[in-house]
Amino acid sequence: MTNVDLVQVGKNLLKNGDTGESVELQSLWQDQPVVLFFLRRFGCQVCRWMATEISKLEPDLRASGVALVGVGPEELGLKDFKEGRFFKGSIYVDEQKKSYKDLGFKRYTALTVVPAALGKKVRDAAAKANAEGIQGNFSGDLLQSGGMLIVAKGGEKVLVHFIQDSPGDHLPLEDIAKVLGISANAKAGQMPVCNDAVCTR
Fold first, then answer.
1. What residues are paired with 38 via a beta bridge?
2. How far, CA to CA in Å, does 150 sit from each of 113, 114, 133, 134, 142?
3. Nearest to 199 by CA among 12, 31, 41, 30
4. Which of 186, 165, 190 is nearest to 176 (CA)?
5. Packing angle between helix 120-131 and helix 110-118, nearest 10 degrees?
6. Which residues sit opposite 128 in a β-bridge?
7. In CATH, what number does 6-180 get?
8. Dmax over Cα atoms in the chain, in whole Å?
9. Over the stretch 40-87, which tens digit does the pLDDT of each residue have?
10. Is the sign of the CA dihedral 185, 37, 162, 109 positive or negative?
11. DSSP state, 107?
12. pTM for this one?
């Protein structure tokens, strides 16, 4: 976990996925703690699966006064993502990808992404996601990775700064609940197999 300058990153602008209104990132933790889930892409099949997993915590988060927010790096795919009801929190877009950069979420290169997109492991991971009825597409920025930022109310401190090392990395639900000091009834699902050589969907 690296040091996060909440003052700097908090000034970054995000666009509300419903209203189109621009807000500063820090406004999301001003009045309550917040779980910020940074997706690789709205069309990413494994990202959609992760969004459904994190959404299992939403009732417990809401009951504890914690906001759940999803952030995508571009608007492409947002409509399908919302219509698919993959995520139960608020959705924002970081069109400049400034927060992604400031939080150290890496970018892949064409050399590391293209071979993976054509490999058998991608098809295998897609088959597992398909078993849960979750589809994906190749639209948008295939090179961006994501992660998670959990911030205490008022920006008092960073509780978690999680950076994906591979496209399939994610925090277990129990770890999210534990760091927030809440009890959660959510049960984690079986994730599609995903590693650097797999996840470009």
1. 71, 147
2. 28, 32, 29, 26, 25
3. 41
4. 186
5. 70
6. none
7. 3.40.30.10
8. 46
9. 999 988 889 889 989 999 999 999 999 999 999 999 999 999 999 999
10. positive
11. B
12. 0.83
13 burial (CB, 10 Å; 0-12 / 13-18 / 19+) is middle
Closest CA to 39 of 49, 29, 47: 47
| Crossing angle (nearest 10°) for helices 45-55 and 173-180 | 40
Domain ranges for the chain = 6-180
For residue 170, the one-letter residue type is H
The type of residue at 169 is D
- What the block records as the tokens of 199 is 């996840």
3-state secondary structure (DSSP) of residue 70: strand
Confidence of residue 121 (pLDDT cuts 50, 70, 90): very low
CB-based burial, 67-97: b 16+ in 10 Å, e otherwise: bbbbbbbbebbbebbeebebbbbbbbbbeeb
Distance (Å, rounded) from C-alpha 78 to C-alpha 82? Answer: 6
Please say whether the beta carbons of 58 and 94 come within 8 A: no
Helix (H) or strand (E) holding 52: helix 45-55
CA 190 to CA 142: how far, in whole Å?
A: 24
Secondary element (H or E) of residue 179: helix 173-180
